[in-house]
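Slide 14.
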Amino acid sequence: MTGLPASAAGGSGATPAPRGGKLGAAAVNQAGLWNIANILTMMRLLLVPGFVMLLLYDGGGDPVWRAFAWAAFAVAMITDVFDGHLARTYNLVTDFGKIADPIADKAIMGAALVCLSWLGDLPWWITGVILFRELGITLMRFWVIRLSVIPASRGGKVKTLAQGIAVGMYVLVLTGPLATLRFWVMMAAVVLTVVTGLDYVRQAFVLRRRGIAAERAAAMEAVAAAADVEGAGPGRCAAQDVHGAAEGVAEPVVEPVAGPRGKPAGERVAGARGATEAER
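Slide 15: predicted structure.
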């Protein structure tokens, strides 16, 4: 204890954040563009041209420059894991991140595949299958995004890991058993690419069908509710008119009964009493 109030001790009375350990959400919860997740995504986008230059330097046959290219590719793949994790954990999801993150993923992978095929290290049909799948699934996500969102499956994550490992092995200059191993790793990645792609197509059609059915059901309920309101309207107005008419009926007014000479009975009685008293 220092004996000083909280304001004098440099605080406002709030409990200070603990030092060390896991970084708190308040420390990185920046809703703007410049948050850590978006910075990692931008860095991955900037790595794409650098990676291409390193891979193709001096005709793409220098093992040293290919090793540098592999390092850039590895950094890009690692940042892909971290930026998504940070965005979800600390609520740093932004519109820029939603657009830039998939572009960065496709850019680094597409650049690696095209460059490897152009150098003759990777068959063009493998590049075509992977790029066709990635582009097709991206377009399909936009096709169903109005109705639902296709969740990322575990198979898709395994596919991404297999692609990263296989492409990374092809970026390096490998010979002997390692060259054979990388071929089979790439074949496994291609199989996962096709299988998960077909699964995404199935999910897209199912989700779109369910979304359209839900929209139709909601529209029918809205029409039925509107019809009920319109049907109840005239009856309600008629009941209100009857009630108002009943309230508007005037009570009968009882008028005094006139005597034989047109005078009210009260005046006639009063006159008779006066005559009697006069006679007295």
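Speaker note: The mean pLDDT is 76.
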